[in-house]
Amino acid sequence: xxxxxxxxxxxxxxxxxxxxxxxxxxxxxxxxxxxxxxxxxxxxxxxxxxxxxxxxxxxxxxxxxxxxxxxxxxxxxxxxxxxxxxxxxxxxxxxxxxxxxxxxxxxxxxxxxxxxxxxxxxxxxxxxxxxxxxxxxxxxxxxxxxxxxxxxxxxxxxxxxxxxxxxxxxxxxxxxxxxxxxxxxxxxxxxxxxxxxxxxxxxxxxxxxxxxxxxxxxxxxxxxxxxxxxxxxxxxxxxxxxxxxxxxxxxxxxxxxxxxxxxxxxxxxxxxxxxxxxxxxxxxxxxxxxxxxxxxxxxxxxxxxxxxxxxxxxxxxxxxxxxxxxxxx
Length: 329
Fold this sequence. Notes:
The protein has eleven helices and 14 strands. It is α/β, with parallel strands linked by helices. A hairpin with a 2-residue loop joins strand 3 and strand 4. Helix 9 (253-267) packs parallel to helix 10.
């Protein structure tokens, strides 16, 4: 039998070995936690949503969901303005009607988008930037360039830029759906899947008072079917794969109102709309009449109403009105 002194030595060695083993396990657990945290940058930070002013989101929606809106520009000769910032719709349409200089429009620069991304990236786990059709505006391209620069500056933030292939409140509806999903705590992948599923289901139609402004703005060439001596018609324009197309020709405003609702019924035979976006350019009374007709025929889950501003107004012109919508689930 071993002496007592040897027995005490064996016990002490065993206690020390157990202590070292426990410390090793504890250190391993701590390192595992650190590794998990290090491989998930921004995991506990929110998703921030960015869009452009072509979405024409209602101000209350922007405030409620803290959406970052990067505005486009309009110029009268050497005077440049930023819509929603330093020119009102009223002032713009006054100049458009009475001025001798045709306005021109321009998208935000990559630098303007980068500034917007910088302002929110310190508190963001991901930034999802949702934009008007790249076939109608260069805004999406500017956002892509800026996102590439932001990724270098903020490697812990994920940046995703999405071309909705729509515009106006149709684009706005996609933005609202994304902000609501992000507010519910959905993952980046889930929000992107929602955007990808909803955007192709949205549509926009607009009836313009005259083709004059489309011609002035150089957009008539993009509208198939309206050339030559067709200036005495009131066209109904729609979107197809991100492009502006001519869907119908009518000659009067009342007929345009009728056909807008009829065409909506063709697109949504269920009679149930996930959203209704009403838009007009200095034509609130026509907007109201259109709303009355749509609500008499459709069930509507969500409704927006906006007066389109300088950039869209440059090409649509005063008196234009229209709708955006998608089928309810």
